[in-house]
Structure formats: C-alpha cells, structure tokens
Design a protein that fits this description.
Bound molecules: zinc ion
Number of helices: 17
Largest sheet: 6 strands, mixed
Structural class: alpha/beta
Helix content: 25-40%
Number of strands: 19
C-alpha cells in the first residue's frame, strides 16, 4: 500500500522519471508474478490435503511428544524435494528438524517456525478419532488441525513448492519444526542453546499466534500476532496461629489472606496504551457502532474519559490489551472444615504487557496488598514480555497479500493473551509475527485444544497458495 501511494506521487513529476525510478523493482516484480502464475496449483493443493492427513495420523500428543516421528515425516518430504535438512534428536523420541533453501544472500533469512507436538486428546469426546485425519462434511479432523500442524504443514509445502518451482530467493528460507512447545518448550530452548547458527542473522520469523476469524456479516479479521503478554505467576502465602474451628482466631492466616485478596481483586491496574494496541483499535473501529467506532479511532483521547475507561475495562475482549492483569486462580487453606490452618495461600495468574518491569509491578502489588506479613513468591518461570513493530516490509506485505485474496478483510496487529515461542526468538533481533493464512469460523477456531479439532479442506487448498505467495514475495523484498 505504501508503494502505491509513492507511485501516485511520482506520476506528478512526469512519466520519464517514473520509468527511470521503477524499472528495476518493476522487472523483479514481473518475474515474480510470472513465477507465481506458472504454478499448477491443483497438484500442490491435492498434495497438501494428502500430506495433512498423513501428518495428523502421527500421534505427537505431549506428553510424551514422540515428535521424532513427525521430524522423520518432514525429513522424507524434504529429501524428495532435494531440500537440505537435518534432524536434531535431543532426548529419547524427541527431535527438532531444520531445513534451508539458500538465497543469494542480499537479504537476511526468513524463518518459518512451527511446533510439531500437540496437546492430548480424549477420543471419547470426538466425533471421529483424533489421530485419524478423517474427513466429514469437507473438514479434516485431528488433534493439531488448528494448533498447529495445519500451519506447520503449509510451511513445509511452501518449502517444497519453492524448491520444485526454483523460486528465486534473496533470503535464505529456513524451516524449523520443534518439539515440546505445549509443555516445557524444551525443543526451541535446546535449539537456541546448542544450534543458534540455524537462525542466526534472521530478519523475520513467522509462526503461530495469528488467527483469521470469519465474523457473522462483518467480514474476516486477520489478527497478526505482534506480541504476547508474559505470564508472571505469583503465590501469596499467609501464616499464623492454627486452631480448632470452634474457637475463631481473628487474625488467622486465611482471614488475613482473604482481606488482602479482596483489595487485590478490586484493584484496577493502570492503563498503558501500546502503539500496536492503538493501531489494533483503529483497525477494528469499523466493526463497532458509530459512537464507539469514533472512540476506537482515537483511543488515546477516549481513554481520558472516565466513562469510556469504565466501559472498556468491563469488556473482557479488550480489557487485557490495555493493562497488566491479575486473575485469582488457586486458593488453599485447610483440608478439613473444623481446622483453622496455620498457612493459607493463593495463586495469581498475572500477565504483564510487553515492556513492563516485573519489579515495578511487585512494588505496586505489595502496596495494594497492604499486609507486609504476606509473602510473595514466584509460582512459575518468568520470561520478559516482548513485541515486534508493525513498521516493517513483512507486515506491509501481509496486509497486501491478504487484501489481494480478500479485499474486505481487516488486518490488525494483535497482542496475544497467551504465550508463543516468538518470545524466545525476538531477543535475537528477529521480527516475529504470528500469522497463518487459513480463515476459520469461531466454531472451528474453538476446537483448538478441545474436542473435534478440525480444518476445512477448502481453507487448506486456499491457504497453501496464499502462504506461498506471501513467502515468495517476502523472500525477494
Ligand atoms: Zn500451538
């Protein structure tokens, strides 16, 4: 879109200058257009559906994972296409796979990252067996069909098509399939510790964390993941004198804990508007009724109005985008009704915005608790939250390619509420986006981590083409 407006401006200066200024990029563009037009899509689309079925039949439920079988599946596929690839086993049954197609080196590498493990599935709740890849009403069923064997397979197909069609590349195209994302993240962690050279100097990375939801009557919203909130799990522990429940103790551990928790749950953490969140509200404004649309278009101003702050804070869909959040999740006191315990604790699922300082947050929390005798300890590992800018050639290209296939779609940067592995790769200087090309209804989207996870076949067929075009263009600009 930026390119088009630059072109319009050049026209004012006369046709000769336009020709001189555009001849080189125009040539490269035409070559790429010709390359894309020459591809016989039905062959690759059929292959995508066939391989998706095979991939879903490999049981990589984590635990235990057994991702080595999935790595071997990709290894065979890449070998057949003449793509250089390596399996990195790192524990019994567990492995990552890395593949590369070399570019001419004028631009830095693009990484396609996917995890090969899936969460477990209880077959009793499924319409079709979760590791069958069976098809019903045009949808393919299988654990991982949404998270994220679909995207992993599309990424592999992009590599295969690039190799078979001899895609000209200015960047190396890197495929990285990892293990154990769903449980401990040992796959990516091992890779970055032992083989950081596999992603060294990469400029861009595409992985999960994007979703393209078909809304009723309002078109499709392409949410491109640009950052995640970081889990900062805390345990609050109160200790005191225990005793028999028949003789109340006014300052017992559970009573002091509950009083402090009441202050915490009533606490409204300060609002902090991130640039990407501001951009998100602007992008989705047109979906809202008129008055709210105007507020979303200028959310900075709207947030100065206490009434708007109250209403947006009550909206679960938007509230978490604007502040650090605190959810009270675990409560533990005695295990018997007539026992006053000498210890009581509660866990808080705190999620911090990118750029936040955990120490500063702890200071605020301590003040809100108002009881210094309550101990605060960590209840999980903490990784600092981070995010990527939308002011990049890849982000603009995503907008361009999405609109080419779906002119009405809204593309918006998303702050993801959950964790993705992008967090591990951004500190290496890589711009990471959560993006895929499948459009799904809310019903299908809700099957992620749930029963009857499935992917519509027509979306697989469409998705592979869109993904390939995005990567082909990204690899050349
Ligand atoms: Zn996932």
């Amino acid at each position: 879109m930026a390119r088009r407006s630059a072109l319009a401006r050049l026209h004012l200066l006369g046709p000769l200058l336009v020709l001189a200024a555009l001849s080189f990029p125009a040539l490269a563009q035409t070559q790429l257009d010709d390359h894309l037009k020459a591809i016989s899509w039905p062959v690759y689309q059929d292959q995508t559906v066939r391989l998706m079925r095979e991939y879903l039949r490999i049981d990589t439920s984590n635990p235990p994972g057994n991702e080595l079988a999935a790595a071997e599946f990709f290894h065979r596929l890449f070998d057949e296409a003449g793509i250089s690839n390596t399996i990195y086993p790192y524990a019994p049954g567990r492995a990552n796979i890395w593949a590369v197609i070399k570019g001419d080196g004028t631009l830095r590498p693009l990484v396609l990252l996917n995890h090969m493990d899936v969460v477990q599935a209880d077959a009793r709740n499924w319409r079709l067996p979760p590791f069958s890849g069976e098809i019903l009403n045009g949808e393919m069923y299988g654990r991982g069909a949404e998270d994220m064997k679909d995207e992993g397979l599309l990424q592999a197909m992009v590599m295969v098509i690039a190799a078979r069609q001899h895609l000209p590349l200015k960047r190396d195209l890197v495929f990285l399939g990892t293990s154990d994302e769903e449980v401990n993240g040992t796959g990516s962690a091992w890779m970055l510790e032992n083989h950081p050279e596999t992603v060294r100097n990469a400029e861009f990375l595409i992985t999960e964390g994007g979703s393209n939801l078909i809304t009723r009557g309002r078109g499709t919203i392409y949410a491109v993941g640009v950052g995640e909130k970081a889990p900062f799990w805390l345990r609050l522990t109160a200790t005191g004198r225990g005793g028999h429940g028949s003789i109340p103790i006014a300052d017992s551990a559970p009573i002091r804990l509950v009083k402090a928790l009441a202050r915490v749950v009533n606490w409204e953490t300060p609002i902090h508007l991130l640039p990407s969140v501001e951009q998100y509200f602007r992008a989705i404004a047109s979906l809202e009724p008129k008055a709210r649309a105007a507020q979303f278009r200028n959310i900075q101003k709207a947030l100065q109005d206490p009434a708007f702050v109250r209403s947006i804070s009550r909206d679960e869909e938007y509230n978490y985008l604007l502040r650090n959040t605190v959810s009270l999740t675990v409560l533990q006191g005695a295990s018997q009704t007539n026992v006053i315990p000498d210890i009581a604790y509660a866990d808080l699922d705190v999620r911090l915005l990118p750029g936040e300082d955990p120490k500063a947050f702890l200071g605020q929390l301590r003040a809100v608790l108002g009881d210094d005798s309550i101990r605060i300890t960590s209840a999980g590992r903490f990784k600092p939250p981070n995010s990527s800018s939308t002011d990049t050639s890849l982000y603009r290209l995503i907008e361009q390619v999405v609109h080419e296939y779906n002119p009405q779609a809204i593309v918006a940067p998303a702050l993801v509420s959950g964790y993705t592995e992008s967090q591990l790769y951004r500190p290496l200087g890589i711009t990471c986006y959560g993006f895929n090309t499948l459009e799904v209804t809310p019903e299908v989207n809700a099957t992620e981590h749930a029963a009857n996870e499935r992917v519509p076949l027509e979306q697989l067929r469409r998705g592979v083409k869109v993904f390939y075009e995005l990567v082909a263009r990204a690899a050349n600009q």
